[in-house]
Design brief:
It contains 17 helices and eleven strands. It is α/β, with parallel strands linked by helices. The strands form two sheets. The protein has a seven-stranded parallel β-sheet, sandwiched between helices. Strands 9-8-10-11 form a four-stranded mixed β-sheet, covered by helices on one side. The protein binds NADP nicotinamide-adenine-dinucleotide phosphate.
Length: 386
């Protein structure tokens, strides 16, 4: 049976792996729409290769280039944020949201509102607007399937019929490239150093988030949105081999885990084919070769981003949205060479201090808080860059 599929953020690390699965499974999916931020050549090539009906680029200035690149192919094109929403709103049974950052919020909501089956990689959307997105998913009958490997692991071992039997959710963290470094040793690191993830090969933003451990903080908040478990029952353990992708501990003391090699095509395939399982080309796990699995507690002093995220999750309301917006600005400033690696947590902390948090119940409120937090974070960046 062929299912219709849309991939938001198709030119990125997750998006291109989703397209790889489409190419490996002829006849299984028909691609309705794909999107990118600004990379017109990559998007046009992907649209032709997968036979998409519609391709949209977020940057409105790239609209003419997009049209030219697809001239004569019969593929419709669009540009600008509204074209991304149109891509998500088109009739596809399955939508993979692999846009990076809060830019994914509006298109994700468009897919939610038509009750699609949504594979969510775009964790920032759940972090900044989790209660609004999950309430809309319930109201419109949309299914949210986590693509993040940790949440996908939990989804696979979670007793969805008896969530009260789950005593703890334990997210594993690789620890990132600076796991063993002191703060002083992290001071002068370059963007390339921060992107050298020890286990996973991913886009720049999530790689830097993994180096600060903010990624694990965002994942805690994401887990709180996806699974009906009180926040005090969420835990993080550093596991450098990243063989165990996460665990659920039950009231009887049993701990269920999902294991696998670090290949995102495993959770992406799970979300794309659910409730079926399909074959993937991922390498098989060879535990005898790996031989040792190590674990350690996360160090919140060397990695204050994780502590900030934990506090924002406990505070709830708009605090996670402020945290996320500030982090996006701080990471972009680090990539642009405006601030150093250790300024990232400082900018996030300053923004959380500066922007008051409170309850949020609509997307419009989320967007207003997001804008206010970005402005405050930019001011904090300028101060530190000066
Ligand atoms: N990579 C992983 O293994 C992994 C694992 C778990 C979760 N995730 C999550 O999945 C999401 C995507 O991560 P990634 O590593 O695949 O990122 P990535 O490689 O940087 O790709 C991001 C995608 O989003 C598009 N994009 C960028 N800015 C945009 C904007 N303002 N509006 C619309 N689209 C925009 C990019 O288009 P252009 O190519 O045109 O820039 C690209 O298609 C993130 O939320 C990340 O946290 C990723």
């Amino acid at each position: 049976m062929t299912a219709s599929l849309t991939i938001l953020g198709a030119t990125g690390s997750v998006g291109s792996q989703a397209l790889d699965l489409v190419a490996r499974n002829p006849g299984r999916w028909r691609v309705e729409a794909i999107t990118a931020g600004s990379d017109v050549p990559a998007l046009a090539a992907a649209a032709v290769a997968c036979g998409a009906r519609f391709a949209a680029v977020a940057d409105p200035a790239r609209g003419a280039a997009m049209k030219d690149a697809l001239a004569g192919t019969g593929i419709e094109s669009g540009a600008g944020p509204e074209a991304l929403v149109e891509a998500a709103a088109r009739d596809a049974e399955v939508v993979i949201t692999a846009i990076v950052g809060a830019a994914g919020l509006a298109p994700t909501m468009a897919a939610v509102k038509r009750g699609a089956q949504i594979g969510i990689a775009n964790k920032e959307t759940l972090v900044c607007a989790g209660p609004v997105v999950t309430a809309a998913a319930r109201a419109h009958g949309a299914t949210l399937l986590p693509v993040d490997s940790e949440h996908n692991a939990i989804f696979q071992v979670f007793d969805h019929a008896r969530p009260d039997r789950v005593e703890k959710i334990i997210l594993t963290a690789s620890g990132g490239p600076f796991r063993t470094r002191s703060r002083a040793e992290m001071r002068g690191v370059s963007v390339a150093d921060a992107c050298k993830h020890p286990v996973w090969s991913m886009g720049a933003k999530i790689s830097i988030d993994s180096a600060t451990l903010m990624n694990k903080g965002l994942e805690l908040i994401e887990a709180a949105q996806l699974f009906p478990v009180p926040v005090e029952r969420l835990a993080v353990i550093v596991h450098p081999q990243s063989v165990i992708h996460s665990m659920a501990e039950y009231v009887d003391g049993s701990v269920l885990a999902q294991l696998g090699t670090p290949d995102m095509r495993i959770p992406i395939a799970y979300a794309m084919a659910w409730p079926e399982r399909i074959a993937t080309p991922a390498a098989r796990l060879n535990l005898a070769e790996i031989a040792r699995l190590e674990f350690e507690a996360p160090d919140l002093e060397r990695f204050p981003c994780l502590a900030l995220a934990w506090a924002a999750m406990r505070a709830g309301g708009s605090a996670p949205c402020i945290l996320n917006a500030a982090n996006e600005i701080a990471v972009a400033a680090f990539i642009a060479g405006k601030v150093g690696f250790l300024d990232i947590d400082a900018v996030v902390a300053a923004t959380l201090d500066h922007v008051p948090s409170g309850p949020v119940s609509t997307i419009e409120e989320v967007m207003a808080i997001d804008a206010a937090a970005r402005a405050a974070a930019m001011a904090a960046v300028e101060k530190r860059a000066a």
